[in-house]
Amino acid sequence: MLKGTVSTNITVTALFKENEDGTFGAVCPEIPGCVVIASSKRDAVKKIKAAIEACLVELLDHARHKLRATKKRSAGRG
Asked: How many domains does the chain have?
């Protein structure tokens, strides 16, 4: 088995909104639960970028785990 790192660029949407209390909210609609609140728009941009990356890493880890489990089940049938 080969192991390595794959790097790719993807495009997702980030929506920003200034709240009544002066804070900023940001959400990535393509990734459920990827939401942040920050004290400034600049901070909201930084936080949503980090949140998107963390969510994608978690999704990839979950997919890898599922793939390993599927391979183990398939190998046990042979």
From this structure: 1
